[in-house]
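User: My collaborator sent over this chain with a note saying "see what the structure looks like." That's all I know about it. Can you take a look?
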Amino acid sequence: MAKIDRIMRMLEKQYPGQFHGAQVSHHPFKVLIGTILSHQTQDPRTIKAGRRLFAAYGTPADLATAPVPKIRELIKPVGIYRVKAKRIKEVSRIIVERFNGRVPRDYEALISLPGVGRKTANIVFTYAFGKDNLIAVDTHVHKVSNRLGLVKTKLSDETEQALYKVVPRKYWVEVNDLFVQFGQDICKANPQCYRCPLTRYCAHYRDVVKPKRIPGSFTPPPTMKSRRPGRA
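Assistant: Without extra context I'll predict from the sequence alone. Here is the result:
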């Protein structure tokens, strides 16, 4: 627990005033669509695309009848925008037809929507419905948690369940915010350990990165073969 306390305090200092909950609308539908947009996309592009989309189509009914090419045009800077445009229209249609135009507050109903997994559902329940009993885990949270040595898991759903056991509940809401920002900024696929404030707590740095930097830890080149006797 002491380790996670220090990690969270250092990340709060690293990213002050950048809490995700302050960057999104607390309207459930906008949180849902914004989270779908955010997949494989950094926050600045997600926020801009969301603003353009909702300026043109502000309700589930509007998006349910919107032309897919127009949705693509509005969200184009985000990753895999062609797939997301179709998914946004389909999700909107289902919300209108099955849930009277409202994002369902039933967890199982929410994750039944196309492309909505536990990470998206947890963000909606946390930021739109005000729940504090869930941790949203995406690729960044999964990666950072394993590199730090907080968990040893292979799948995001496994990471979520493991984090509940090692992270105090007071941090559950902001784990996603801080780990995502940290994963996008420093702990990338090729981590920038030279500028990381968490190396003293990081299992990956201790076990993988640091040993490579210890003088004399390299393998010396092979010695030259001895000359055969009787040759000049």
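A starting point for your reply to your collaborator: The two ends are 70 Å apart (CA to CA).
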